[in-house]
Amino acid sequence: MSAYPEAPAADAMLAASQPDAHVLAFLNTRRSFPAAALKEPGPSREEISQIVRLAMRVPDHRRLSPWRIMVFDGPARARAGEVFAARYRELNPQASTQELDRERRRFCCAPLVIAVISSPDCDHKTPVWEQELSVGALCFNLLLVANAAGWAGSWLTGWMAFDRQIAREFGLQDHERFAGFFHLGTAKDTVKERSRPAVEALLSYWQG
């Protein structure tokens, strides 16, 4: 198990910035791994708690924590797959056996899947969009923390992330939706670097 740092005390005085060449090098080479390229082992439940704790260290205006976390491990992965297959059959009555088997296996490649649920306070003065951005920050932070702890993974969605009946099957309320499913485990092998966006094409300085 990785050595996860203790959380600072609530009233601790923290530095505004902490330059760290190791963090920059980590970010420079970080990449996602396909779910099919993952294998056992995965993080233990104790490690999952630590990963989620650190992932929640994100910008969160007015400290609303507009998210929920749901973990699928062990037999729960296959049970989730049965839910997906049943709903897929409803939506696609002519679905083949191969297609239904694919849905059943969606959560079974990686040792575990962590679902991040966007759960904004729609009556709060903080705009829902701003709350959803905070959820997105948590999502990427979760992947970064898992990678920094030595785990490979990917952030996926898929049709079921946008299906309201699936959402209800997993206990989501009407105002909630899946922000993503994080497949975590051990990488079977290395993967090639992919091309990156050209900074010059996307960066500009406003002159008024």
How large, in whole angstroms, is the Cα Rg?
A: 19 Å
Largest sheet: 5 strands, antiparallel
CATH homologous superfamily label of the domain at 36-73 and 109-186: NADH Oxidase
Could you say what the CATH architecture of the domain at 36-73 and 109-186 is?
Answer: 3-Layer(aba) Sandwich
Instruction: Indicate the proportion of strand residues.
Output: 15-25%
Instruction: Report the CATH topology name of the domain at 36-73 and 109-186.
Output: NADH Oxidase
- The termini sit apart by 52 Å
Shape: globular
- Spans with pLDDT under 50 lasting ≥5 residues? none
Number of β-strand runs:
5
Helix count, per DSSP? 7
CATH class membership of the domain at 36-73 and 109-186: Alpha Beta
User: What structural class should be given to the helix and strand makeup?
Assistant: alpha+beta
As a percent range, the share of helical residues equals 25-40%
Order of helices and strands: HEHEHHEHEHEH
Whole-number average pLDDT?
Answer: 97
